[in-house]
Amino acid sequence: MQANIWRVFGERDAAERLKAIRELYAENATLYEPQTSARGHVAICDAVSALLASLPANFAFTAAGPAAGHHGVGRLNWRSGPTGAPLAVTGTGVARFVGRSHSVSPRLSRSRQGLTAST
Fold this sequence. Notes:
27% of the residues lie in helices and 43% in strands. The chain is an alpha+beta fold. Strands 1, 2, 3, 4, 5, 6 and 7 form a 7-stranded mixed beta sheet that branches.
């Protein structure tokens, strides 16, 4: 799950991100966002591209501690904000695994006023 943070949500180069998604996600994986969902490698890559395009270029996603899980379900707390500045948002990613990641559901926990983020 930590690889998902830096190799998918932390990668601004779409070709590199798609390569990581193909390694980390099952072929028919689904990314569930609050307003929509994306199924399959290319659609997930496009959804992350749209998210990253909506954030300032200096925003970085990082893990907020180790991932935890059992019985094929994992959870990872994450945070994001401008590099070297106070955090703008925190959240929790939940993933279901059947071999590779089969579904990912990011949840926003806290956001600074005036910032909109869906992951």
